[in-house]
Amino acid sequence: MNEPILLLGSNGQVGQELAQILTPQYKVISLARAEIDLTQPDNLRQIIRDIQPKIIINAAAYTAVDKAETEPELAHAINATAPQIMAEESQKIGCFLIHISTDYVFDGEQSRPYQETDQTNPLSVYGKTKLAGEIAIKKIHPDHIILRTAWVYGSFGKSNFVKTMLRLGKERSEIGVVTDQIGSPTWARDIADAIAQIIPQLTPEITGTYHYTNSGVISWYDFAVAIFTEAQQLGFPLTPPQVIPITTAQYPTLARRPAYPVLACGKISQVLGTYPPHWRQRLRLMLQDWYSQSSSL
Q1: Rounded to two decimals, what is the model's pTM?
Q2: Catalytic residue from among 26, 104, 114, 126
């Protein structure tokens, strides 16, 4: 592929993993938040027209779920309007668009994993703006992949659940974590790997919406317990705190969160030729990787 891949959101958890994986194989133009303002439509259009990419990967998003409740216009600009512009410009130049979305487009009320075709019903501004971005892409540009994922964590990025737990674990002897929100923790590197495997297969036949998370289903409470168990076994410098199970009602937040937004990954498994690896195995690998960068701890 001689034409470039335009990677947006290259300083995020998935973006940094994508940059590492794709750069040896492709001509990747990586743009982080400091280099492109997704709230400026004309600027975004001009950048796409100047670069003329073969593929755009949109790993950028407004992901501050609670803050979005008080900044709905900003969340909409980044999560809905910017993907719409990407779709419009991609359609004009014949460019594939790969867009990362979220389990928060669902309300989490059903008791089985969500298929790609299930009814969406987001509960929060974040979920509603991400869904609006999906709808715009589907309406405008047929050559797209929308990849919904969930509970993303990794070595890169300033903050995620794993890093937050380990930080609090050094500061507190007791941590309360909700036990009635269920999902599938997903290593950012696995999402990037999945996208890297999709790229050579990009044809009109495989375009559409897919779900990708690591396999296995747990609560945030169980995830926190596993994080401390694995970290202690690896020798992280902490004394594991007592993790107290609490309910969502005991930990009120500005944004409502879905209780069971588990994503079914059968469709993406057919494209990748294998089912996503289990979250516990990937958590261990991520912690090993992060621990090897001892200056991060």
Answers
A1: 0.95
A2: 126
